[in-house]
Amino acid sequence: MTGGTEPDRRAELLASLERLRARIGAACESVGRDPDELSLIAVTKGFPVSDIALLGELGQQDVGESRDQEARRKIAALPEVNALDLNLRWHFVGRLQQNKCRSVASYAATVHSVERSQLVAGLAAGARHAGRRLAVFIQVSLDADTRRGGALVDDVIMLADQVALAPELDLLGVMAIAPMDADPDTAFAGLQDVSWQVRARHPDATSISAGMSGDLEAAIRQGATHLRVGSALLGRRRP
Asked: Partner of 163 for a Cys bridge, out of 21, 171, 190, 195, CB 3.0 to 4.6 A?
């Protein structure tokens, strides 16, 4: 048992994880997909490091954070909270500032939010400095409003080419957040179209990061391979 944590929180997370896996399984079954094709990322922004330790004990290894400072603080605190080697894989899923590239590249296994050339260069330099490789998704703006994050569809191929040329980076595919007022099936179908355009030039870039707590079924129907889930797993953020 993780020191300092409440048994009821462990039970709560286990129940949420089981419900979420059942939900993913049902969505996959409805379209003839194998749930093993999907990676579930627990988005732990705003939740305590003790929750991450409990999720790790329950077998949830992929963890997503969207703020560099919060991620680094949690990574540093984990050994104090849990002495076990949880073998977590850290995903950076938030909007990335250029001055945070070196830091993020030092711990993240995957960055889901590459949206401009400067980030490609910054992450490549950061990975090179850390002596490691970094997997990345190109974030796509599905409504052409780049203020909310993501590259314009017309710029995605250019960014994919730049990532593919960086020896320190591995291009996984594309990522998007469904616009708030859009039908998620329509939005993610558009993302799948962009994915096929990228694959035409980079055949190994087959992954699609899409789907959150409220729209993961639509994402699965439209070919998502990575789901980024927060509230459906961890509940509402605590004050």
From this structure: 171
